[in-house]
Amino acid sequence: MKFPGEAAERVARALLQAGSSTASDLAETLGLTTTGVRRHLNALVDAGLVVGHERAPYGPTPKRGRGRPGVVFSLTPEGRAACDQAYDDLALSALRFMSQEYGPDAVHAFASDRADQLAAAIGPRLHGHASPTDVAAALTRAGYAAQIEPLGAVAVQLCQHNCPVVDAAREFPILCEAETEALSRVMGRHVTRLATLAHGDEVCTAVIPNESNHAAAPGGAFGKVSA
């Protein structure tokens, strides 16, 4: 699916990097006028690449000031797919071949190895002690456009606005499960997945407790986490 113009593509990619945003937020990020950004957003909405909400689809409800609240825009699954995720088709084909030729154990081994590499990218010295901010930064470098949102005094919410292998994860949820377990290990905290792009949600979200005493069980066994 193609974008309705180069400027509209810039707006869509800004949404991919920043997550759900208002027109004024995007205008500030891109150095454009709010009116111009709204025009491109309308074109993206008409193309089915962007959707508007009365509030962000994740995190706490923002406080409203005077006047009409701004619409919050986010990419649809089609919009994310248009943001250059073509290589996901190759990953999906490879996983299907692996599953058919070598069985599900081979797919599980691949998912675990991929998750271990992602965990290693956060930093060996942080293993078991990484902060949610460390994790979000590493995920963003890997293409997940991640950020942390506070959830009161007891937890934070990890939001991932993009998934480089969303189609593969939709068919092989073990990719999400292995990733969640790896993040739990590097932080020493249990990570509870709430929503995923692979399931059709508008953002991947997970809750991470602030206190490290909510650690994983000995041996790294976290139980099965929904993806």
Query: What oligomeric state best describes the polypeptide chains here?
Result: single chain
Give the CA-CA distance, first to last residue.
27 Å
**Topology order in helix (H) and strand (E) letters:** HEHHEEHHHHEEHHEE
Largest sheet: 4 strands, antiparallel
Based on the structure given, which CATH architecture of the largest domain is correct? Answer: 2-Layer Sandwich
How big is the Rg? 19 Å
CATH class bucket of the largest domain: Alpha Beta
Alpha plus pi helix count:
9
> Helix coverage percent of residues?
40-55%
What's the pLDDT, averaged over the residues? 82
Number of domains: 2
Give the tally of β-strands: 7
Content of β-strand: 5-15%
Can you put this structure into words, describing what you see?
The chain has 227 residues and is of the alpha+beta class. The chain has 2 domains: 6-82, Arc Repressor Mutant, subunit A; 88-220, Muramoyl-pentapeptide Carboxypeptidase, domain 2, CATH 3.30.1380. The protein is built from 9 helices and 7 strands. The chain has helices at 6-18, 23-30, 34-46, 77-82, 87-102, 104-122, 132-141, 166-171, 174-187, and strands spanning 21-22, 50-53, 72-75, 146-151, 155-160, 192-195, 204-209. The strands form 2 sheets. It has a 4-stranded antiparallel sheet with strand order 4-5-7-6, with helices on one face. The chain has a 3-stranded antiparallel sheet with strand order 1-3-2. β4 and β5 (155-160) form a beta hairpin. The longest helix has 19 residues, at 104-122. The radius of gyration is 19 Å and the shape is globular.
